[in-house]
Design goal:
- There is one protein chain.
- The chain is built from nine helices and six strands, in the order H-H-H-E-H-H-E-H-H-E-H-E-E-H-E.
- The chain is globular, with a radius of gyration of 18 Å.
- The chain starts with a helix and ends in a 5-residue tail after the last strand.
- The protein is α/β, with parallel strands linked by helices.
- The strands form two sheets. A four-stranded parallel sheet has the order 1-6-5-2, sandwiched between helices. Strands 3-4 form a two-stranded antiparallel ribbon.
- The protein has two domains: 37 residues, no CATH class; 189 residues, Rossmann fold, CATH 3.40.50.2020.
Length: 231
């Protein structure tokens, strides 16, 4: 089997989803160079970050984190495009597992009871075939040993893409789009909300508005990337 795999790798070489270079046998999805040099946020090592300031006065979170800082036309954008537009859902899960390993080193999410990925509307989910945030959440869930819940928060309104909208338009676009199907399921729980990319924080704020009246709820957020204003 090893010989067959080696032969196939010569004909169909695997490449790094970040830089495009060929991968060695022991590398998966991302080459070792990129693994070390991609712009990790390291927000789990600080309490005051650009991301926490995005939510200041809007969302009372416990933690607000992202694996990477987004780079326009950079390697992080290539990773996100591979996941979203090339249907590389396993890459999203891989990134979730890698991030979980970093977070375990300082027990960042100790006390989190459940992981909830930002849901897609049923029409968009049917068209795309998968939810990239859910697959990132799966990787986190497996390595952090925290259950994932894809049933309690639902997207009741189908929205247009946020990509080209201005800040106030993003808020308007997501207002009231989520609903909770079972408030008791989240009562007195620390909930970790997962998104793929955080820009203005409008989607996360909409999720908070949806759950804020649940008794005793605590709220944290994590994403694959945060689009810093500095980039």
């Amino acid at each position: 089997m090893t010989l067959i795999n080696d032969f196939l790798s010569l004909i169909y070489p695997r490449h790094c989803e970040a830089c495009g270079n060929n991968l060695f046998k022991h590398e998966k999805y991302i080459c070792n160079y990129c693994k070390v040099n991609l712009p990790k946020s390291n927000y789990h090592h600080a309490s005051d970050t650009e991301l926490t300031r995005v939510f200041a006065g809007r969302v009372p979170f416990v933690h607000a984190l992202s694996l990477y800082v987004f780079e326009k036309s950079g390697k992080i954008q290539k990773l996100l495009h591979a996941i979203k537009y090339q249907h590389q859902k396993d890459l999203a899960e891989f990134l979730g597992k890698q991030y979980a390993n970093d977070l375990l080193k300082n027990n960042t999410f100790n006390g989190v009871d459940v992981i909830i990925p930002i849901p897609l509307h049923k029409n968009k989910l049917k068209a795309r075939g998968f939810n990239q945030s859910e697959w990132f959440a799966k990787g986190l869930s497996e390595n952090l040993n925290i259950p994932i819940d894809t049933q309690t928060m639902m997207r009741k309104v189908e929205t247009n893409t946020q990509t080209k909208k201005r800040k106030y338009q993003r808020w308007e676009n997501v207002e009231g789009i989520f609903e909770i199907t079972n408030h008791e399921a989240l009562k007195n729980k620390h909930v970790l909300i997962i998104d793929d990319v955080i820009t203005t924080g409008a989607t996360i704020e909409a999720a908070w508005q949806c759950v804020k009246d649940v008794e005793g709820i605590k709220f944290s957020v994590a994403a694959i990337a945060f689009a810093s204003k500095k980039t």
